[in-house]
Design a protein that fits this description.
Layout lengths: L3 E5 L4 H12 L3 E6 L3 H4 L13 E4 L5 H8 L4 E4 L10 H21 L6 E7 L7 E3 L6 E2 L6 H5 L14 E3 L12 H20 L3 E6 L1 E3 L11 H11 L4 E3 L6 E2 L1 E3 H10 L9 E5 L5 E2 H12 L5 E3 L15 H4 L9 H14 L14
Parallel strand pairs: 1-2, 1-4, 2-3, 4-5, 5-9, 9-14, 10-13, 11-16
Antiparallel strand pairs: 6-7, 6-8, 12-15
The structure holds nicotinamide-adenine-dinucleotide.
Length: 361
């Protein structure tokens, strides 16, 4: 009998790709998703329909929906989440953190034979992370940059000598300093899952994804980030808008590498009760990424560098050596993510709403 896997948020980007890969490995897939309107417009996306998946429309904030979805399940991927930088702070905690507590509560209460729980956390838990002063070599954890500094276009994190400090790639064992409700709720989720998992003997793995890129990132979803925004801007002939001076570094990871990571930790007991960074392994300037999108789309759009977002971090790069020890490494760069995303956009049903010219499709 094939083992049953529950994927919450499985109608989404990472969950659906993970479902496809697990099916190929012989698992049965059940998806619990509330089809959040910001992502899906309340309908099951075509890429999960007709694939033999059991689809349950339900909410991870509701115990009864979890109970129904957990029946007969061996493994759980908990991916459903509230994302973005929004002011409804409490929704991050109810969706991301309370849902995690509910999951463990039901496993313990009903003595469910769950073999492993794998949860989506985020690079966002690090906030700005740790920096090194170029003068003394000392390390420090900076505060979020002030609005005043950002208005003055003082983008870099400064050390006590008022000189730009050097970012140190995030390591799983460093202190975390989330800068927004999303990061805070993910960190709380990690703590809850690890503590409850250890106490009740439920193998648990936390995945701190960097910025994941590839097809099925909902063009409706503002959280989908630079790939979605730049591609849609480039394809519609609108200016490609880059914040700050474009020299902030980001760590982009391709969805196929993320799926491979999700599978590596499933059957390897060495992953149990551990936290892993899942990133692309190198930092890329956001401006260079915008230029790459422009080149690949052959767009005439100008790149405009201006503006900033209050809670953006300056640089965000994860050290991935811990997961590499489990024989995983990223294989694909942003070029593939951009090309695959554009190919997928061509097939996207509601393309009209993005005013992408007909000639493109
Ligand atoms: N995509 C990234 O770059 C990235 C980076 C770091 C972490 N993550 C995390 O990975 C996970 C998957 O992200 P994604 O990019 O696939 O996002 P996504 O928005 O494509 O998918 C999330 C899914 O969760 C569902 N959902 C939201 N609230 C729900 C609720 N209350 N009950 C049930 N379902 C609900 C949505 O309908 C959606 O299908 C999330 O936990 C996210 O925080 C993603």
């Amino acid at each position: 009998m094939k083992k049953q896997i529950l994927i919450t948020g499985g109608a989404g980007f990472i969950g659906s790709h993970t479902a496809d890969a697990l099916t190929k490995k012989g698992y049965r897939i059940r998806i619990l998703d509330n089809l959040l309107s910001a992502v899906h417009n309340n309908t099951w996306p075509e890429y999960v329909r007709g694939r033999g998946y059991e689809l349950i429309k339900g909410d991870v904030r509701k115990k009864k929906d979890w109970v129904r979805a957990l029946r007969g399940v061996s493994y759980v991927y908990h991916f459903a989440a509230y994302q973005d930088q929004r002011p409804d702070f409490s929704v991050f905690f109810t969706t991301n953190t309370v849902s995690t507590a509910l999951l463990y509560e039901i496993i313990v209460e009903k003595k469910l034979p769950i073999k492993k729980v794998i949860l989506a956390s985020s690079q966002f838990v690090y906030g700005d992370g740790m920096y090194r002063c170029a003068h003394t070599g000392e390390t420090f954890f900076p505060e979020l940059r002030s609005v005043h500094a950002l208005q003055k276009k003082s983008w870099e994190i400064l050390c006590s000598h008022k000189a730009p400090a050097m970012p140190i790639p995030f390591r799983e064992d460093q202190r975390v300093t989330p800068t927004n409700s999303y990061g805070l709720s993910k960190h709380a989720l990690e703590e809850a899952a690890l503590r409850l998992g250890k106490t009740y003997g439920i193998p648990t793995v936390l995945m701190r994804y960097s910025i994941v890129q590839g097809p099925r990132q909902s063009p409706r979803n503002l959280y989908s980030g630079a790939l979605r925004i730049f591609c849609v801007q480039a394809l519609t002939g609108k200016p490609i808008t880059v914040y700050e001076d474009g020299k902030q570094k980001r760590d982009f990871v391709n969805i196929e590498d993320v799926v491979a990571a999700n599978i590596v930790v499933l059957n390897n007991p060495k992953a149990d009760f551990k936290v892993f960074n899942v990133g692309g392994g190198r930092g890329i300037l956001v401006l260079d990424f915008a230029k790459l999108v422009k080149k690949i789309t052959d767009s005439a759009s100008p790149i405009i560098v201006s503006g900033f977002r209050r809670t953006d971090t300056r640089h965000a790069i994860s050290n991935i050596s811990k997961l590499e020890k489990l024989h995983w490494k990223p294989r694909f760069g942003p070029e593939k993510s951009i090309r695959d995303y554009i190919d997928w956009l061509r097939t996207f049903k509601t393309k009209k709403s993005f005013h992408i010219p007909k000639t493109f499709f």
